[in-house]
User: Fold these one by one.
Assistant:
Number 1:
Amino acid sequence: MSSLGRASVVIGAGTMVSRITGLLRSIVLVGVLGAVSSEAADAFTFANTLPNSVFSLISVGVLTAVIVPQIVKATADADGGNAFISKLFTLGTVVLVATTAVATIAAPWLVVIVAGRAPLDAQALATALAYWCLPQILFYGLYALLGEALNARRIFGPFTWAPVVNNVVSIIGFLLLGALFAPVPTQASGWTTGMITVLGATATLGIALQAVVLLVFWRRTGLALKPDFRWRGVGLGTVGKLAGWTFLMAFASLAAGVLQGNIVSEASGSGASATVAANAWLIFMLPYSVIVLSIGTPYFTQISEHAAARRDDEVRGDIARSIRTLLFFIVAAVAAVAAAAIPASRVFTSSADDAEAAALVLLSYLVSLIPLTILFIVQRTFYAYDDTRTPFWFTIFQCGLIVATALAAWGLLEAGAIPLTGLAAAVALGQSLASTVQTIVATWLLHRKIGGLGIRSWLAAITRFALAGIPAGIAGWLVFLAMGGSSGWTAAEKIPGALGTALIGLVVVVVYVGILAAMRAPELQTASALLRRLRPRG
């Protein structure tokens, strides 16, 4: 295989294992803390979301868009980029330490921002856990800096596989919490200092070890890191100009997400709230991560090469081919997840009734999986043309819609039009609608920028996939009903739920591929060739 093919296999395998262990982590956490109507689970979700949110702002706004290209350029220096990277790491560490300190001090206020509608006991527990969790900002940042530097030196494996260490440590810690304090109370008022210490320390230890793993592989880069506070020449002015649009875009997305979480927190302890929404998003992101990121990233590289050479006709061809290929897999995933929504949700809940409530949130998110797949290629095509301003504006537009739909959901709740148990699903559906409109606007803007995008070929392909996906989804749902439906064995416990999900998914895929084969869909041959290239060779 080519080096790119081998890298794709490593990244794809690492992503798959990381996501699967992440699912297991969430399953264990639900088993210990519960999910629906659990103040303790929601409090931990609120606290653990804070460092992730701050890190996302730093990572998306600066690291991915700006720092990574700077590291790649620096590797061409006479010293292989050693001096530049040492200065960059010193500056980055100082910024991360300062950010972590300020965020930790501000923990009570940050909790109010993300969970201000939750019961006071839940907010108090979230604040106590936040003091343990917010130091993760430093370790997340170091993990990103180290990982991107390794990737720039074409050492791809560690960055992708390191999160598995975090997931394993978390699983062990959660099991320890359950063993020491069983039964762990779901109400926040029943928590003790010992419980808080075990849970908070476990969460942060996993992130710290995730960063340490990358240090073990640092020797492969051939670089010697050392503190260097002579920051002149790092190019902060250039970095600031480049990062401006992407940082503002990340901040807007973060602000919209915080508002959503604040509104959903009103259901904490009374129904599907923050933990259920987080687990539904985790299931939703599994096909997106494995399919879109693994297959779409190499396409993005090709689009970037053709865009740099100003070969717009080839860019348009790349866009059409990549979207058709991705949608071939994604439509099958949508049909499978929709048919198995209840057993899949049962894996992350404590009862069949809770699974039904969580499945509604999952289905609400699932509406946007196809639009987000298209958006992945469209948005990155703008990046390939060094245009970060246009994505900023259509993301701001989406954030405005997210805010409007979240406030509308809250208004419907206050008016009694929806029950408190349906608040999280209403907010999730609003986000899906916002993402769908965003994709339409972004596609139109890209069409104006580079001309025809082969949209007719997308629509023809989507029609074929829908003609296969809808019957396949129905077949999967009939299998679910034949196994007893919500009162059957697939919704009885977590392991049967996982087995039922796999069985339903298998039926959906077989029917989907069979119908497309009968239709002689041209994408079948493309997908088969792609899978053969990704298969490791002896």
Note: The mean pLDDT is 83.
Number 2:
Amino acid sequence: MSTEPETTEGTEPGTRDTAAQDAAPNDGPAAESTGPAAENTGSPAEAPGAGTNGGSGAADDDGGTAAGDGGAAAEKSEAEAELAAQRIERERIERRKAEKKGPIESGSKLSGTAADLLAAVRAVESGAKPAAPAFATPEPEPVRRRPAPEPVRRPGPVSAEAATAPAAPAPQTVQAVRQVLSEGGAPETLALPAAAALGEGAGEQLRADPWQLLRVTGVRPEQADGFARALLGADCGPDDERRGRAFTVWLLEQAALAGHTSLEAQALTAALAQRGVPDPDAALQGALAEGDALVFQDALDEPGAPAAEDGDEDDSRRPVRVLVGLERYALAEESLADGLARLVDSVPKEDGPAEDWERAAASAQGSAAELIRAVAAHGLVLHTGGEASRVEPARLLDEAHRLGLRAWAATHSPLGRDGFAELTTQERDPARADGPAVVTVAGLLSGGEGPGRDADGALDLDLLVVLDAPQLDVETAALLVESLPDGARLVLAGDPAVLWSVGPGRVFADLLAARVCPHVASRVPDPGPLGELVSGIGVGELNQVEAPGKEVVIVPVRDAAEAVHRSVQLVADSVPRAIGVPPEQTVVITPGHGGAAGTRALNAALKERLNPGPGRFGGFDPGDRIVYSPVPGRVLPGHVLGADADGLRLSCSGAPVMVPKERVDGWVRHGWALTAHQAVGGRWPAVVVVLPGDAAQALSRPWVYTAFGRASRHLSVVHGVEQALPRAVAEVPARPRTTRLPVLLGTQTHAQAPAPSPAPGPAPAGD
């Protein structure tokens, strides 16, 4: 199955750091033909770290392009507030980094390549251009935590209110960009996103450096080359310093879209060479000298290497790896490590006598009691398990609320929020009218949900339990941890076998591997045939299960056309008749958006059967089932209410949404059929997983585990991949991501925290 990759499909610059995302492609204007070389937009070998695991990279995320499409300024919405909060956090981190003054003396005893790398970085810091083609980074000093500023808040319950675009660029800026694009033979539709990406003076920037066009989402290197040749003529060459710097940044951005927070320097230079950069080392050197990227040198703990001792600065005999990354992710990762170390090393608030906590633990059973005891004594606790294990965080929250703590839970999606809120109600003592509240992570950070902020700008709570923790990318996790007050407790809970986050990083898996805090592995099994099937997949086994109630049904098909036909038949007829689940409670999951059996084809067929209509407003009609994605990586399910001159009116998780008409194409999709990444965090009574023959290369164990695990009562598998399915489950694990968080945690935490021994279970997974 083609998943229509647009920016990230291709080969890895190196052999170690590969990843891919199962996210939605961008249908906005930046994804269209973008230049004189537009006929090459389907070529492979684009992104460092991209692959075929579930589709295209996060450049194709469900949130559309990063470029603004204009439109009138409107009242700040949840998504806009969230973006503003993230910008404030990044600015705060950058200010904190700027406060680090003075030369870094560590590493003075290094020799050979490591010494050259450190010398090159110091040359950059002093303002001189480094002479060596190898680079290193000084070890970061401990940083002081400052309270996170309060983001824009709006009153009332969680809302999926329409997110408005950032302020549109000035008309004269757009016009200047349009003129330069016209001179270079690029489509004028790129004028607005280019002006938004480059800011004031965008026209002059493009004229001085045509390769800055790569800053626009969806533009590819060969298109930027064609644009530069048209503008510069004979002055354009493959060895142009501007080209090398722009390609370096572009490759790092593609790596981030594929999940990496950084790339090994050797892999990056290899990718530059594949892109036709004559001197990759010089290109990397130029990008570092201009501050377009940062470089790091991390000591590795490998078998046979001498162990580091306290106070020992002689690292010359220890192996190192040199990593290069974009500043925004590097700062976020450092901030996250600092915040996590603060939680690990801090003593939680005295929220009641120890005997009260022990009494609460004694009233629970098994791993739920272990979780309560761990949270009583530690600021950071990890909890792992399948869907059934959520009863344990629910019990923890209820006991904490009983003890008087301001306890909150946060989930990845509104569907997960609603389901967990129902579970906490079931766990609550009937004699009490209230209990802990459940919000989404996005709503909590934006201020649209949750307890609000205290006078210092920290979240006004004592205990936060984050469900779906594998979906936390490094920037969201950093903002969340930095927003916690001193003495607060944080529990990160989730299933380590599901797909990783759409954004860069693998925060939950890195924490599990680092072993710096208690880890409680649930011993509550997922029940029934579906639980048995999914649990087997988690450990690499695709077992046949007894399903007397038709909990699992396999539907063989020969080709994609038959797969679409049988899927529609299952949703509209077979499942309602045999299982009793109506079409509105059934979701279809497929590996990608494009192709003959992708989400587009399936949604078109399902709309024709379930809600036929002319699609008078951008292809939508009242009653259409949709997913709304105002921010990359966030998916809100809902349905269409109607349309008027202002835009498309939706209902998402019970909240009204108005989508401006110029944003409909990029932010709204039909939602009967989803990708696995869109479905993460939600569960439905019935799920139809579509696996046509050409989807074999997109399958992996985490993808199958995630897709099959979305069903609570019934799973139909439209099966056309033959032996590729059991082979993927047994042999295709998560693609690794390159991150620095484990190394940073190792240097910032003073000692490993004692942790309860985890029960046997699946290893952390991902994409």
Note: Residues 78-98 form the longest helix (21 residues).
Number 3:
Amino acid sequence: MTPRLSVVVPVHNVEEYLGACLESLARQSLEDLDVVLVDDGSTDASAAVAREFAARDDRFTVVGRENGGLGAARNTGVRHTAPGSAYLAFVDSDDVLPSRAFESLVASLDKSGSDFASGNVLRLGAGGRLRQHPLFTEPMRSTRRATHVTRHWPLLLDRIACNKVFRREFWDAHSFAFPEGVLYEDIPVILPAHFAARSVDVLQDAVYYWRFRDSSITNKRAVVRGVADRTAAVLGVSRGLAGTPGHKKRYDESVLREDLWYFMQVLPDGDPAYQEAFLRCAREFTDQVDPEVLGGLPPHHRVKWHLAREKRLEELVALLEFERRSPRTHRVRGLRRRSADYPALTAPVPRDVLALAPADLPLEARLTGADWHEGRLRLTGYGYVRNIPAQVRRHALKAAWLRTPDRRALPLRLRRVNDPSITARSGQELHRYDWAGFEITVDPARLLTESAATTWKLVLGVLGHGVARRGGVADAGAHLGVHYLDEHTRIVPVFASGRFQLTAERVHTWLTGHDSHEGRLTLTGGTRTRAVALRLGHWHSDAAIQVPLARDGERFTAEVPLEELAQVRGRGPVRAPHGEARPADSYSVQLVKPDGKRLAVAAPPGLALGRHALPGGRELAVTVSAWGNAVVADQLPHAYAECVTWTDNSLVVEGCYGGGSGLPLRLCHTGTDEEAELPVRHAGDRLRVESAYEALTLLADGTWQLHLGDGPVRVPAAAHPGLPAARRIGGRDFSVERRSHDQLVLVVSKGA
């Protein structure tokens, strides 16, 4: 029987990783496939591993050849795939796939009829840690079926073969083949395929785990062969688009911002041969680029490509070194026609290269703190125009107001604050922003209107050196909390779409308790509405569980069969960077009125954290969302930190965990693959972590996420007021905080 999908896996000296790759292929939920393993002249035990696996699974075959590189091995594999298979895929032998990867991609193609489907990619680091690969953040931000690169230009960044399934007739009709004996062999195939396709499918779900290895060819930059092969690849694509000038301009801009910028960044690290090769390649590519493309780049790209074309190597290297210390930083010259002035430049540069548009001087506005004091909300933060200094009070004029969607405005009193740490936060060394700080106090009574709910967005206006900007305020570590004015009125501060807003609303439905017994979850609460049912809406799919309410005046009771939760478990895509099993299936809790309208169920202050045991070692948690509403989560056991304190010589974290004993607390650095462990004392479902200062001082600066077992350590709502908890140790600041609403982190910094 002809398999539906053929998979080509080139193999060369990857004995350490090959087994995991092949196991992930064997576990694919789409079982109707054949896998061609091409031994590309391996000198280690890779070929033996491949043959042993093929002997166990007749869907796998091994083809041997002399070493010829990745492109040649892939082409050989395609020639040995099963005749008549409908789909074709490629996998690198040191990477792994989630179990539903091929099922998701093929199902999408069956439904859409597109020529190929492409899915999200996570970066697989040391210890099996998975994180979103930054290259695929924007292209795969949302699922798009039957789209095209010319309708979704971020797909220009989607240029690898391994996160895709191709319709075989499309592949054969265009006679696609990988170039042989070169690096970056994907680009000459994948980019033309994007433009040649009638349509493509884009899946937000992760379908590929790309292993990050220091020895990987994709991690070598400052080498002559690398820049030469990459330039040849992008030149081929660019010249192939000559018949469609608009498409060529878009692609050329992407190359200058991404592909060749990747090699320009390491010019200071390269030897003279690499630097000369880069300048030669840069000139070769830019000579065939429309001048409009070069002129339309942002200033920090525009000036560097000008220096590269002029072969002003010393200035270019100096500018790159400066920007490593001060990214996108320059002085601003002129009043009516502003231009950038870079310290590294020693000779004139044309004015149009240095010209600044309003968008080149954006507002940088962040909220650093939010707390309730004597019934009022106190907000602290900073706001400045990037590259416009705010080192003296008169150059840091600011105003703030709240605005509703219907454009009602509420002016706020703002106090300007001198805070040298703002300059340190800016991550540059050219300007001082000490006077960019602000403090705002909001009277919640002014937020109430006749409407049941009113949302106010915070807007900050800044004026400095004749440059005025206004906009929303983003997060910089503010710790938000829902505040009740009375039993049925609350203020909800959140960051929505990355910007701070306040919602004043009247609460008509609330939860008072929860219990589980005899296979049922019982939820009790109150409502001032005519609600007739309770609905649990699954966050990850369209599934929902709805049960009738038992009413006694304002009080209600609802019983949810646990078996119905089990039937929904695992539905929908796996979007978070974790492994095969989703750690939690979360549900919103809503009441349903007779007309079908749904009402969120609030979780008022004092609602106890719910942890109810489920079969199979899972638990049912009743928690609170960032919006202050009840959430039910069917999850693997999570640890909850109920109390964080600093003693004279230790950090102490106390809480609960239902996942068993003997597991350490893992600290995972968000910027690297570095991990550390702290011992945990378990007593039943209680936990206690006590770490001496000496152990903490070994941690690198940055943010460390705290994990226990299969999930992050979370902070129940009752413990939110106790954070952040900070201590200065050995000249560095250590702060235990909550991020992403309820996840516990340790932030380590040098401090002021």
Note: The first strand starts at residue 5 and ends at 11.
Number 4:
Amino acid sequence: MKRAYDQWHEALSEEFFGPDHALQSTVLYVDDEAERELAERNGIDASLAQAVSDEMYWEGSDKPLFWRVLSQCRTWTAKGSAGAPPSLPVLAASVLAATRMATSDGMLRTNFRGRWYQVFGVPQESRKAKRLDKALDDVAAMWEELDFWLERAGGLYGASTVSTDEHYWRIGYPISQALIRRADRQILTRFFATTRLRPRNSTEVPGRELLRRLTAWSAGRDRHLSPRLMEELQFATGSGNFGKGNPLIVSLLERLAYDWDGTLHEPDRKQRRRALGLRLAVTDRGRRLEWLADAAEGVEEATVRIHDGRSFALRTDYGHVYSGLETLHPSEPQLRLGVRLEGDDLVIEWVPQEVVLLRMHSDLGDWVSTEYFEPGEQHWILASSAVAGQVGSMLNSIGTQTIREAPLPGIPGWRIFKGVRAVDSTAFTRALDSGGEHVHVLQPQVRQHTKLIGGLRIAREYRAGSSVAGHYLRGGEPDLLLPAAHSPDATVEVALDGRTSKLRADPRVPFPLNCLRLEEGQHDVGTSSSSQVFTVYDGFHEGLPEGTGSLGYKCDRTAASRVSSVESEDAWIRGAAAPARTELPRTVIVRREVLEAFFLDSYGGVVPVHAQQTPPWVVKRLPEAAVNRGLEAEVPEGAVWFVYRTPSRWWVRVVSVNAAVPAPAPSGDDYRWAYAVLSAGDKCGEVGWSAYVQAAEAIIRSHDRSAE
């Protein structure tokens, strides 16, 4: 009959390091409930603590407490480290102690050793307690051996999440496994997706920023995270804890993020699905809402379905987003209850929230939901009717005078706050420190590196290379965002042109470089881990181009009607009169794979858009991957609809400058217009499009009757 210790080793090996854990993050989480389930499922009569205690050497002090287990580990190593290390039951017992850490029974939530003694029924301050305390050195070595075994196996038995830090060291290993339960891992893959984390954390989002985002993601909503993890999140949101939090959970979140492959953790599904966070976009200058989905890497096309049975064919479009969601119009129930679009390869989800932060999208030019507040930049905030009053009061306290509040179009009861910008650092810091249920929406990201923001840029077209962050007018230098401090005195060492100073600055509030009165020229600012180069000038004073002023209108009481060369000292009028109002032409982006495209007006007019070839000099000098997949087409005066066909289907986009689409008024013989409309007749759900389809059908019916 097998020893209880061996039975527990087999059960733990299968549960946490079995074949289904390959290439997935694995957490050796064992609490009282998990211990009970494992024992029942595997027919183990002895408790985990009893099985481990039977292997301990209590008789004397001539040998280590775990000398039997250490001997088995040496034999296991000598035979090639096949299977999980023999120390698993010991490690699981240490995690069991960590899961019991709480302020109760006369112990604080930070007291691991007290719970470690308690697991084995050993009184504190006893001889056995001292032996257990000394044995933690060997237990720490066992954790390091497990971590090395998992890393060396290359993910065959799972990706290691074993972590610690200098402060905790020995006890940090089991605590790192007790923070996140097995069920938490599945929920965290949803969180990684909805917070737009890249697979393998390719953008290197630091662990403290992940903790901040997780805290915001779970604020006000039950995401079904374990009580222990929620306790850590609540601690992270406490006053003065911005950018801090338990270093073990910070390290663990970062490790899980680097191991995440961009898919959902769905043990019941054979095929792993990519996961994305659905985003909300406010377009047409705040008059319309749309759903927006970033394109998943390696998934150019996909079909997803919503709960009511509707399906949507997605295709990668300009700005690295999917087109195909135009007919899914955001509604109040969707914002309140969430949206989940599922396909065989892709899952896109909007997690319900009462307050939504938006920032201008750099490619699309629309206001799109985002994960963090950027001090110094403009933001919009959407708030449900239940919390709009609280959000308005919070925004009034940050010192911005230009906030405008209005109803959110198409969503009854919701409000939109425009012009949200933190300009008063003192008021902004006070608002953040005061807390509040919705203050997470104003929290900036936690950075590892310095960043320049704002400032009065000049000569944007000039760059001295990719290392130059920008050129600024003297007196309008940019602000410097600092990384979160890790030093005991909460300061950050900043170097400016080789001279270092320690700043006790709030990382949420930018430091104004214009107060330093910098000299003209190039400057280098940052920390030991990151720096940026920028230049400061009083202005660029360049000579006038050759030939300036050589043309004009000769003036002899009245000006001549034609321009000519200035050749004498007579009176001349030089220069030009600029119009009082100048407007740039409106354009739309057309993908290069579009087969045909037309602009349609309300009177039967059709303006075709012809494909433009990539200029030869671009093809010659740049690799194919660098060529933009889109081109701009100028919108003709009076155009209402843009209709185009790709290899997969027809598409329709409204381009009318008016808030309301004008009614169609074609003549009876505008057949080309009618055929263009009917080609995409069922491909658009925009208000007003159905009237154009009906008008086109009437023209075709009239043509058919006349042909008879």
Note: The first strand starts at residue 25 and ends at 26.
